[in-house]
Design brief:
Elements: H1 5-39, H2 44-94, H3 104-122, H4 125-143, H5 147-191, H6 193-198, H7 202-252, H8 259-300, E1 309-310, E2 319-329, E3 346-355, E4 360-365, H9 371-378, E5 383-387, E6 390-393, E7 397-400, H10 411-416, H11 423-432, H12 436-441, H13 459-472, E8 477-481, H14 489-504, E9 513-517, E10 529-534, E11 537-542, H15 544-551, H16 555-559, H17 593-600, H18 602-611, H19 628-638, H20 640-669, H21 680-723, H22 727-732, H23 735-777, H24 781-826, H25 828-831, H26 837-888, H27 894-932, E12 968-975, E13 985-992, E14 997-1002, H28 1008-1015, E15 1023-1028, E16 1031-1032, H29 1038-1043, E17 1045-1048, E18 1057-1058, H30 1059-1063, H31 1072-1082, E19 1093-1094, H32 1103-1116, E20 1121-1125, H33 1133-1146, E21 1151-1155, H34 1159-1162, E22 1167-1172, E23 1175-1180, H35 1182-1187, H36 1192-1198, H37 1204-1220
Parallel strand pairs: 1-6, 4-9, 4-10, 7-8, 8-9, 14-21, 14-22, 17-20, 20-21
Antiparallel strand pairs: 2-3, 2-5, 2-6, 10-11, 12-13, 12-15, 15-16, 18-19, 22-23
Length: 1221
Amino acid sequence: SRQDPFSILVGCLLLSLQGAIVTVARPLALRYVVREVAAGSLTSANVLLYAFALSCLCLVDGLFFAWGRHLDTDYASVYFFRHVGTIVLDKCCRAAPDSSRPPPTNLVGSDIPRIIEQLRTLGMGPACIGGFSGAIALLAVILGWSSLIGLAVVFGMLVVNMRMGHIAKRAEKQNLEAADFRVMLLKQAIEMIKGLKYFAWEAKCMKQLVEARRKQCFKVKKAQATLQMSLNLGRLSPFIACLATFVFYGWILGNPMEAGDIFAALLVFMSMRLSLIIAPNAYIAAQQILLSLARVEKYIDALDFPERVVIPHSEGLMADVQFQECTLSGVRDAGSSDGSGFRKEFVLRDVAMQVNPGTLVAILGEVGAGKSSLVSAMIGAGAITGDGARARTRQRVGIVPQKPALLNSSIYENIVRGKPFDADRFAQAIDVAQFARDLEELEDSVDTIIGERGTTLSGGQQMRLCIAQVMYDQPELVILDDPLAALDHVVGSHVFDTLTEYIGASTPETPRALVMVLNQMNLLSHFDHALWLENGAVIASGTPEEVIKSLSLDLETSQRTNGHVAEGSKQNRHKWDPLKPAGPNRHSFVGSALHVDMVAMRSVRCVSSTLTDIGSKVESRATGSVNFVVYHTYIKSMGYTLAGLFIVISLLAYTSMVFGDRWLALWIRNSDQNEDTDAVYPLIYTGAVLTFGFLLVVSSWVFAEGCMRAARTLHDECLLKVLKAPMSWFEEMPTGRILSRLSSDLGTVDLHLPHSLDNAVQLTFTVVVMLVTICIFAPLVAFAGIFVSVFYGVLGVLVDRTNREIKRMRDRAMAPIQTNLAEVLSHVSLMRVDDGSLRSFFMERHARYTDIQNRYMFSSTSMMSFSTFISYIIACVFVFTSTIFLLGFGDPEPEGVALSLAYVFLVPYFGGMASSVAVMCGHNFTSLERLLELKSDSVPEEAWPPGTTFLEEPTERSGEEWPSAGSIVFEDVSLRYRQELPLALTNLSFQILGGQRVGVVGRTGAGKSSLTTVLFRFVQPCGGRVLIDGRDTTSIDLQQLRSSISMIPQQPVLIQGSVRTNLDPYGEVQGGDAALLHALRQAQIPDLDLDDTIDVSGSGISSGECQLLSFARCLLRATKIVVLDEPTASVDTATDAKLQKLVRVSLANRTLMCIAHRLQTIIDFDQILVMDAGTVGAMGTSRALLDDRSSYLSKLVDGGGSDTLRLTLEDLLAKSTEESL
């Protein structure tokens, strides 16, 4: 796609010649013909000769214009989009995070397309230069120094327009900043949509986004007003220049008004109209290009991550880390999925660690101690300043972050990630991650498509899939950031066993080691080395026994707060045999039928991995012409009154324009007949021109006001529909696709659609009134006018029909580019330790998607250039026939011929522009069509009451308080997430009494989280019902239902802003800051203040603190029912014990349903519900279930192959019984 610079020079030369033809050759030809008419020397042969010459002049004009545009901008646009987009993506793969930089998704989705659009405007610069140069010379020849008056007006208006360019630049910058802020809020809302629905925050979020949109629309209106004023000055400049020149030349100086000279000058000034519009627009375009380029440059020039220092194989170390007094800045949180957040600063002190081959190293500490920061520092994911900083690791490192980073694709693609396919390594990775049974239960097995959030998988499945990603690479050093927190104890035990077996197979030739952030103290004895962190400093280091002794820890007590058990010790680890099937307690992928098939289809899998598109629900694409409903919706959103007023005023404006030109012809005819009326003609001509200018400005203001009203209304309606959509829609719809509609498509509706629509209407009225005027002097021209109208219409329809489909495909092709970029952001920390294959995977995928996008863009722009040339061919026919009708029939008068011939030249000129602008307008309406898909019936809607807008004030509920007891009953509930998926819950029935505490346990994927899905009505059950205090939840208003239940979700819901904002985002808590601080302290977060800032990813605090913050928010919501989904998964054992006590005290008398993998968390609850494959495996008291060796809970407890967990649970249960007595 590389462009030859010579073609740009040729294109500029052709456009310069075209500008000279328009402003020099055509007026001179007009002047000559009018003089021939005035002299009465016309013959039939001359008429044919003149008609042929004028039509050829029109054809050369069109050839130079179309060819020059094609060489100048069509190729450049493709080259620019591919290479600048690739540069941004490449920077995204290695850039240190910085919240002050523009988001890369905005750069690729908005700034770069904006630059390309402005390049097409800027590409007209050579034509303007050629046109201005020729116009100045010709006017000096025709009118002498009197032309300086008109030229002074022209250039004076240009100066004003240049000044307006500066204003437009500032307005555009403010608009971009406002758009960035709105898109950031929107992106945050979409990514935390489940949290919004948990807490019934849709209405508050809607108001926040509507307010941000209102502020942005104010900036858009300012930018639009500046652009419209610039356009109007360009439209008015020729008329004001003609007025000043002709009044000075004919009235003040008293020079004879010759029709040939006057209308040749008129044609020069009118031909300069496009240049007068383009010149300031090109200046504004240059300013906007510089602004967008500055944003791109700001992103590209940002600091990269420091180079990761690799330990050579000869040293024999796996990792060498030392920080004496060092500050980490720009460290992405390991749990950040969007890459937008980062820990601004964290201090590591007295940290020293060396990892030898074959060893397991544990990193321990309380919440916020700096465990994840140390992991980030190890791989160089942040800037380290200070003395004694050293972080080196082996070349091949695999890291599993706290929050899984997944592709919006198949399970297969998520594991392989563009690397060469190896069926054996694939099977080994599946077995290490204990994912074989999950693949058996999934209908499409390894080809199952998962969303950006991994929404078809549970949290534990997502974590194990990340482990499979790492193990497929067979790394030398494995780094895991608390991976077992999301796994139940049986699966966690098996995963830990296989990981230790993998490390146990370390040899001098293939050394291996493991570093794990650990909160499961019962596993500590299996490690060779341990570090205990506190406030970023290592306070204890050595063997597990030395650390325990140094800190006076009671390991036996610590083990009672954890549920992961792996029998054995570091001295008798099993040797890892990659092709050995798993033991009797595990499901094995090695040797399975699918494994055998994958080995047989090795080559097919390898090829398909390079061709697979981003896996998601296939994006729908409209076909055919834009539906009339789209146009009607836009007009309706504008307001019928404003739309009708705009049409009427515009028609009156152009009627006054033609009246002024016709009056000018009368002035020329009668200039020497009656000196008493000399002042009447110039005064009326002046009034007509000023009236035209006034009505033009008013019409554009009315139109801009209507367009802004439409933009706000359409945004609010689409946003409302999105927020009212069910979770199933968000699970299938990639974030990039939603953002592309509410950012790039909405940006087109904001600026480009009003601009093109206004131009289309103005040019159409210009052509119509000019044709009517020509027909007054030569009625036969009406036939030529009909010919032109029909062929322009046919051409417009053909081009629009084809180009519209291309534009739709082009718009559709942008979504995968955006989604790929979002996935790059979520994988940046992984690319820090990758061998380059992951980066190559994203770069190759970006190149593939960009090529598709460029194919459509180049086809579209090339077709526009070709259609322009075809329109000039049609214009040649019109010029030829019209010239014959004007000169060859009747007795033509010089003034009428001069005016008509000037219009004959201008009608195809403006007609071609109108046709092109109409096609562009149609393209922009496809963006509106895509935007309106968000408010169509294709977007499902939850069961909100009819007329809900989220903007109305909430009404006070009357009657008794609900729920009063908090009882929950599931009656034969069955749940299916999507029609093609198997049942997640099957005839599930159980009862929770009001005030009871019920713990829910089960293997990952057993259906535990599906209980909350049904309870919150994220998905309607396909059978059965759920009752709360005897009322069917489907009969309860969603807002009331969800606001009556408190939730601590598995993934914390965090908001950009302060801690105060996160605890009470909408000012609902009674008691002010005192209540918020009390909740913080209750949740065991002593180090956070209300004014501390948290990034959207929560990376300003540790993952454990994020979970505790969610706990504090729950304490502030006085609801009768509380649901907890792994509330203590990311906290250390000491904090876990404190929170368990807090649950017993602060949440007493509330109905609790707690989903947990740590059985110790819920062992003292009133009831235990054991889930198994979407059904009730067992339910009863802890004592009864433990005593019954045949119960599902006993089998779950004994599934790890150890008696340690049972003994621990027995001790905890006995202790709880004593305390209750």
